[in-house]
Amino acid sequence: MGKVSMGVTVVGAAAICAAGALIMRHRMRISNRCVTAADILKELEEKCATPVSKLRQISDAMTVEMHAGLASEGGSKLKMLISYVDNLPTGDEQGVFYALDLGGTNFRVLRVQLTGKSSIECQEFAEVTIPPPLMVGDSQALFDYIAAELAKFVADESEKFQLLAGRTRELGFTFSFPVMQLSIDSGTLIRWTKGFSIEEMVGKDVVQELAKAMKRQGVNMRVSALVNDTVGTLAGGRYSNKDVAVAVILGTGSNAAYVERAQAIPKWHGPHPKSGEMVINMEWGNFRSSHLPITEYDNSLDADSLNPGEQIFEKMISGMYLGEILRRVLLKMAEKAALFGDTVPPKLKTQFILRTPEMSAMHHDTTPDLKVVASKLKDVLEISDTSLSTRKIVVEVCNVMATRGARLAAAGILGILKKTGRDTVRDGEIPNTVIAMDGGLYEHYTEYRHCVEHTLNELLGDEVGKQVKLTHSNDGSGIGAALLAASHSQYA
Ligand code: ADP
Ligand code: MG
Question: Between β-strands 221-227 and 186-189, what pairing exists: parallel, antiparallel or unpaired?
């Protein structure tokens, strides 16, 4: 109704006014105002729809790309990187080992004591936020910062561990960026993702960079294993459960790894592993397909990002970006439909001001008048006095974006299960598959996590769905790296 009568007014104004260009601008402005936030929301829902048929197309495309990436180097958007991990932990590993886990937001240092019975006796860790300037500075500054934390960690250890000093401490290094692995303990950086951009580091061996920094900081440690966080999570998961065959990270970024048959990797020309298997780091964040429900918001986010054209799947599903997509939708609603009143709240124009934890808090608001939404809008965006209907729209946008992300992640998982034949009955049996999940998004965003779980079940059906389990592998990536350091120990 409102639209029709406004349209008539515009036509009336056009007849009176003589200056054509002015009329056009006037008409644009008024007709833009006719768009309501509900219209924008409806369009968003349509564009972001992920019916099962679409998810199946996406998982099929994922499977096709997996084959292509395994066939040849550069054969696909999916790098399908060979991890050099051809033996996952058995549970018999023993000794004290360290891990350094460099993700996208924080890094962690941890120490584990392995007792040889699938149990981890002692565990201690320190978590440090990476100062943002270091993410875009130079590699020496970044690695010196990390090595200095390692030095502190070791210096603070109790005497029991100080006694190890006669023997070089061994470290598993979890480095969650695409690396062309050269061996289990060396590899060169292919490119940065997730807000990191240190150009001179690309092409360099990350282990050597860390080793040089450790030397500068006086830390006597040897890097025994360089692993991606997905590979670490897979190893950590396998240590306590032999059915773990896939690992998925949903944190700042997103990625997956799985156990592949060595024979199914045409591009692998190394020795045939005794186990007959090799862990593949998919780098699935860089997946893209014409079937993905990409919106104008995704396109503008990508164009403004540090890595345009790359990591498209990651930009639709992971923690670094969900809040930013939400901000972009709310900004459009503010500009085109005056969602927050006549003026566009200035803070809403700041990129990355709205983080995914805030989005999650708003999405989970169960108060009848959406108090949490009101307070987040006020605290983060300085928007006060919002009406209940405005807050409801905000929650609904959170829901649309989180649901799309979670359902796409589930479709990606189905792609891996298909590739490995774990999505159907095989020789009269359905294999048990456990998927080790980790990352702050999966851990803390309950609605998102439940949606991944429901969607995967919906896609697999009851019979197969019963045999496939998702487990949260807390700290799996760090523990797994320590386990891989143990199985590649120079003292073993
Ligand atoms: P990384 O991916 O850097 O290794 P994490 O696995 O700890 O680190 O994931 C951190 C990310 O998880 C954050 O960038 C954020 O996007 C997301 N996250 C953390 N807490 C929450 C939360 N409460 N709700 C939703 N997302 C969260
Ligand atoms: Mg991590």
Answer: unpaired
Please name the CATH architecture into which domain 83-239+474-487 falls.
2-Layer Sandwich (3.30)
Q: Residue 24 and residue 297: Cα distance in Å, rounded?
A: 26
Ligand nearest to the CA of 314: 1
Placement of tokens 């829902």 in the chain: 45
Every domain of the chain and the residues it spans: 83-239+474-487
Q: Could you tell me the distance, in angstroms and rounded to a whole number, from the CA of residue 476 to the centre of ligand 2?
A: 9
**Which residues does a 6 A CB cutoff place in the pocket of ligand 1?**
103-106, 176, 251-253, 319-320, 356-357, 360, 439-441, 444-445
Measured distance CA(61)–CA(63) in Å, rounded: 5
CA quadruple 80, 81, 84, 85: dihedral sign: negative
What is the DSSP secondary-structure string of 251-280?
Answer: SSSEEEEEEEEGGG-TT--SPPPTTSEEEE
Note whether 307 and 194 are within 8 A (CB): no
- Which residues are CB-contacts of 349 (< 8 A; sequence separation ≥ 6)? 331
Pocket residue to mutate for ligand 1, from 109, 441, 450, most atoms within 8 A of Cβ: 441
Write the residue with the smallest CA distance to atom 12 of ligand 1.
440
Residue having the nearest C-alpha atom to atom 16 of ligand 1: 319
Ligand 1 center to 324 CA (angstroms): 14
Active-site residues, by number, are 108, 176, 229
Query: 104 C-alpha to center of ligand 2: Å?
Result: 7
Residue nearest to atom 7 of ligand 1 (CA): 440
Closest-lying ligand 1 atom to the alpha carbon of residue 101: 4
Please report, in tens digits, the pLDDT of each residue of the chain (492 residues total). Answer: 333 333 323 333 333 333 444 444 444 444 455 899 999 999 999 999 999 999 999 999 999 999 999 999 999 999 999 999 998 888 888 889 999 999 888 899 999 988 887 777 767 788 999 999 999 999 999 999 999 999 999 888 876 665 555 678 999 999 999 999 999 999 999 999 999 999 999 999 999 999 999 999 999 999 999 999 999 999 999 988 999 999 999 999 999 999 999 999 999 999 999 999 999 999 999 999 999 999 999 999 999 999 999 999 999 999 999 999 999 999 999 999 999 999 999 999 999 999 999 999 999 999 999 999 999 999 999 999 999 999 999 999 999 999 999 999 999 999 999 999 999 887 788 889 999 999 999 999 999 999 999 999 999 999 999 999 999 998 888 999 999 999 998 887
CA–centroid distance, 102 to ligand 1, in Å, is: 13
